[in-house]
Amino acid sequence: MYEEKIELLIDGVFRAGSEGQDHPLLNPATGAELTRVPHASAADLDEALAAAERGFAIWKAETALGRYKVMMKAAALIDARLETIARVLTLENGKPLAESRGEIAFSAEATRWYAEEGKRAYGRIVPGRMPGQRQMVYKEPVGPVAAFAAWNFPASNVIRKISGALAAGCSIILKAAEETPGTAVAFARCFQEAGLPRGVLNLVFGVPDMISRHLLASPIPKKVTLTGSTAVGKHLLRLSADTLKRTTMELGGHAPVLVFGDADVDHAVATLAAAKFRNAGQVCTSPTRFFVHETVAERFAHGLAAKAAALSVGEGIEPATQMGPMIAARRCDAVHALVEDAVDKGATLMTGGHRLNRPGNFYAPTVLNHVPDAARIMSEEPFGPVASIQSFASFDEAIARANALPYGLASFVFTRDGATARDAEAALNAGLVGVNHTMISTPETPFGGVNESGWGSESGIEGLEAFQRVKFVSELFS
Questions:
Q1: Buried b (16+ CB within 10 A) or exposed e, 185-199
Q2: Which of these is catalytic: 117, 284, 315, 332?
Q3: I need a surface site. Which of 168, 218, 290, 315 has the fewest CB within 10 A?
Q4: Catalytic residue at 250?
Q5: Rg for the chain (alpha carbons), in Å?
Q6: Average pLDDT, the chain
Q7: What is the pLDDT of residue 478?
Q8: CB atoms closer than 10 angstroms to residue 350
Q9: What is the pTM of this model?
């Protein structure tokens, strides 16, 4: 049973869209309709903009301690409702309950971290050049925020935006993903019940392009933050240009993995299998291009294929499930087209490579070996449960292949040699590098990419500063 009523939140009131438009929310594991998702009209968006402007004036004037207290109450409510929200997340997204529970727990932790860090938004005093002069640097909230969150992490994508904005003193209009609205609604209820003033948090759903065009044409939002594809990021940047909005863009990736000849292969296989097939590969930092030293390449490929073939694939609400469905049938089709193209061009299909014959959007965990550079999957992010393996002979060759694409979000390195690790860390074009592990996202550390994977960071002090602006004041009294 789906346990969340999907509503818009505008000016502190949960309600339907004013024009009665909606669409069905489907369970990706069964295709069954879970509920209906209301659409915000242009009039609703105008109300949200006005509410965010009023809410910003109230929330900016609140003390950092006052904001902290509200956010800590919201985090406690998220913790208390973890099981209920995790079930909502799994039903709408498909990922196993264990993953959903971890994501909700992360969200409560991130809210607490931002609440604490908001009390440490320090400025500084700069010594004056003249007697009686005082020079001060202040950190101020940037203003109302327009935020856009992706469906693949319905909790963590949403909470980084809400908590970062609120900790800095900003109001926010969040357009959460229409595919996974319930988690955002559940979080919004927690913040409202914690005492957040009206208009500080607004939540809308609807036709994405209409909403983004309407919100970004307004001068009210001063900041735009997106988790989404590179194409969508470029589109929002163009829409933001006319009003010179500040932006944080967490965009697509195509993460390379370098497994050197001295690596602990068994550890690499186990670690990377878990990371690759988490959320059915629908992760922007998911390892996708596996470059393995020729001395261990076949052993690694067979080990990864065995792990993939042994995965229990099914509905996320089933306790035994290790990998759930993809979000939509179109994503299965897109992944299969990449796999077929790779095999046609000479790749070896070691396991998987087909949709599962059952209701829902299930694609078999897939491992491709000896994938040629000409295969589309080596340059197009699969965003699905597919690992593509090539061998390499030298360090320079591995780095060149890893850096061959315009993306630069995550990269991973497996080696027992510290010097090799440091050389790779320095050489990789990526905002995130994990060495001998893949857990590179925490509330206290920056998360963001370079090049066509975007700019700016969420989480860490960088994530708080993304919602701040700098004011310099110079006083002179004789």
A1: bbbbbbbbebebbbb
A2: 284
A3: 218
A4: yes
A5: 23
A6: 97
A7: 75
A8: 20
A9: 0.96
